[in-house]
Automatic annotation (TrEMBL):
<dbReference type="InterPro" id="IPR035923">
    <property type="entry name" value="TT1751-like_sf"/>
</dbReference>
<feature type="domain" description="DUF302">
    <location>
        <begin position="54"/>
        <end position="116"/>
    </location>
</feature>
<protein>
    <submittedName>
        <fullName>DUF302 domain-containing protein</fullName>
    </submittedName>
</protein>
<feature type="signal peptide">
    <location>
        <begin position="1"/>
        <end position="21"/>
    </location>
</feature>
<keyword id="KW-0732">Signal</keyword>
<dbReference type="Pfam" id="PF03625">
    <property type="entry name" value="DUF302"/>
</dbReference>
<dbReference type="InterPro" id="IPR005180">
    <property type="entry name" value="DUF302"/>
</dbReference>
Length: 148
């Protein structure tokens, strides 16, 4: 009996934990700051709105901690985000979109973001919704341009 209770608990816990998010990663030949400047310019040139740029390393430094250069850009376009939220308001938990630029332990700079199809997969949104492929295309183009 104890074994079956333990097994039931383990199964419940395993199914309650979120799956690892699928991340898309793009290599950059620039510094984190230059990469993020290029990404911000590309986002603004595309007509999207930049809501925030978070410097994680500066935050760590303010707390007397060390962290490799790392910045997060938060941006969106209501033409893409609104249809997602019309399909399921909980999409607002994942929007606006976010892209992280960071320098790894070997000194390589990367841009990374969560695939919108994966990000919105647990919601009441059809997997073939046009706005998902548009988000994927926009993120791919913007990060590629920033990494050039």
């Amino acid at each position: 009996m104890t074994k079956s209770i333990f097994l039931a608990g383990a199964i419940t816990l395993a199914t309650a934990l979120p799956a690892a998010a699928e991340l898309v990663t793009v290599q950059s030949q620039k510094s984190v700051g230059e990469t993020m400047d290029a990404l911000q310019a590309a986002v603004e040139d595309a007509g999207a709105t930049v809501f925030a740029r978070v410097d994680h390393a500066a935050g760590a430094q303010n707390a007397a901690l060390e962290l490799n250069p790392s910045q997060l850009l938060i941006f969106g376009n209501p033409k893409l985000g609104t249809p997602a939220m019309q399909a399921d308001m909980k999409a607002g938990l994942y929007l606006p979109l976010k892209v992280l630029a960071f320098k790894d332990a070997e000194g390589q700079v990367w841009l990374t973001y969560q695939d919108p199809a994966e990000m919105l997969s647990g919601l009441d949104i059809p997997s073939d919704a046009a706005f998902i492929s548009k988000m994927q295309g926009a993120l791919g183009k913007l990060t590629s341009k920033a990494a050039e």
